Amino acid sequence: MTATSSGPTHARPSSAAMAGVLPRPGRGWTYALVVAIAAGVLPILVIWWQGTTPSSLDSAGGILTAAGQICGLLAAYLLLVLVALMARIPLLEHRVGSDVLTRVHRALGEYTVSLALCHALLIILGYALTLHTNPVSEAVTLELDYPDVLMATAALGLLLWVGVVSARAVRRKLAYESWYFIHLYVYLAIGLAFSHEFADGSEFSANARNRMLWVGAHVVVAALLVLYRVLVPISRSLRHDVRVSAVVRESPGVISVHLTGRDLRKLRIEPGQFLRWRFLDKAHWWQSHPYSISAPPTDRKLRITVKDLGDGSGALRHLKAGTKVWFEGPYGAFTARRLDPASGGKVLLIAGGVGITPLRALFESLPGGGGSAILLYRASTPADLALYRELSQIAERRGFGLYPLVGSRESSPDPFSPAELHRMVPDLADRDVYLCGPSGLVHAAKRGLRRAKVPARRVHVESFDF
Fold first, then answer.
1. Domain FAD-binding FR-type spans what residues (predicted)?
2. What is the pLDDT of residue 83?
3. According to the model, what pLDDT value does residue 121 have?
4. Do 89 and 141 sit in the same domain of this protein?
5. Which positions of the chain have pLDDT values less than 50?
6. Which of 5, 68, 302, 307 has the greatest count of CB atoms below 10 A from its CB?
7. pLDDT one-digit tens code per residue, 374-422
8. Looking at the 3D structure of the chain, how many domains does it have?
9. In a domain? residue 18
10. pTM of the model
11. What pLDDT shows up at residue 96?
12. Residues 89-139 pLDDT 10s
């Protein structure tokens, strides 16, 4: 069922979330996460040292072998961390933010693949030097004569495959579904590597305490994954009975999906957050996509706005009213809780493309009025300004500023130059900035804000990169 947009139909939410009910997310949580991950390296080194005799490091072969062992242990540790980061743990999702977790996950993924590859190469070279054999023949011997090394090789191959498809140049050419399903092979890689660690790793085979700790770590991460990615979503989906009520065309290639449910306030969805949606019809039941809410939620209604990016999102325009929806979330910390108390509630929102989705919900629900919020909306043509009529009504009703920035990337003047930003927003340095849109726009806006001397702690970015 398709209709023409007729303006916002959602009431403004309660301001409880903005009054400090939940902790304010920020860089402190990110630093704490990084420190916690780094702190886990020390026990890994202790485990390695417990199974190492000093005399084994007296030769070049022994040193290479030891380096390979350390790389393998660190790669196994980081694999667990990668899974934990994507387990959708509420403490991390609401304090650190999904975009930051994704960036940390991506960076650690590169280290993990590199460490796993170094582990294999260093072990082969170390053994070859110690036994005075050819590295190629030593590799064959390891594969054929050592237990579960073939499994470890398969795990390394899977990790390399995932690493390749995660490279930016490759990832941009993949459909979201392809990228997502390939990443599921990480779980198989962990299982294969786990068997190898216990069969060939002296750190575990000769130490019962280390075995218990390592098994316990895997059990805890698996339990978190099952709890927050399976059990909680199923429970919430059954309890709140979310269904499609209508599909509305907003602009070329952009639609809004209106949803109904029961007791939706109990989900505590905040404007700016997103959920992962699974529409249970023949075409979409096997897909799960992350979409932000595009209007403040009520106890009975939700709305998401989706752009056709060629990854299955375009097919959502064919959804039928009554289609049942399962979901995960809410996720993300791109909310009003990020506001710096020192800014006095003054906010600048910068959106481009479908990045308007979370900012549309924030624009209506932010505290304050009378110019406390200004929205800069970048688009190539006027037709690309999705939800603009709603934004105009909100701006008029609440006294907010709204500036459409229409034109090509090569248009002059640059809307994100310091001079233009200060012209449109004279008190720019005193505002919190919420930024969401395509990567090119995000980079240009961040560069302009940095040159305009906006403190980095006040620039909050939501990224749609996967």
1. 237-337
2. 93
3. 95
4. yes
5. 1-22, 466
6. 302
7. 999 999 889 889 999 999 999 999 999 999 999 877 777 888 999 999 9
8. 3
9. no
10. 0.80
11. 86
12. 988 888 888 878 888 998 999 999 999 999 999 999 999 999 999 999 988
> Could you tell me how many residues make up the chain?
466
Written in H, E and C, the secondary structure of the chain is CEEECCCCCCCCCCCCHHHCCCCCCCHHHHHHHHHHHHHCHHHHHHHHHHCCCHHHHCCHHHHHHHHHHHHHHHHHHHHHHHHHHCCCCHHHHHHCCHHHHHHHHHHHHHHHHHHHHHHHHHHHHHHHHHHCCCHHHHHHHHHHHCCCHHHHHHHHHHHHHHHHHHCHHHHCCCCHHHHHHHHCHHHHHHHHHHHHHHHHCHHHHCCHHHHHHHHHHHHHHHHHHHHHHHHHHHHHHHHHCEEEEEEEEEECCEEEEEEECCCHHHHCCCCCCEEEEEECCCCCCCCCEEEEECCCCCCCEEEEEEECCCCCHHHHHHCCCCCEEEEEEEECCCCHHHCCHHHCCCEEEEEEHHHHHHHHHHHHHCCCCCCCEEEEEEECCHHHCCCHHHHHHHHHHHCCEEEEEECCCCCCCCCCCHHHHHHHCCCHHHCEEEEECCHHHHHHHHHHHHHCCCCHHHEEEECCCC
What pLDDT does 15 receive?
37
Residue 43 maps to which CATH number?
Answer: 1.20.120
Residues of the domain holding 434: 336-462
Phi, psi angle pair for 305, to nearest 5°: -125, 130
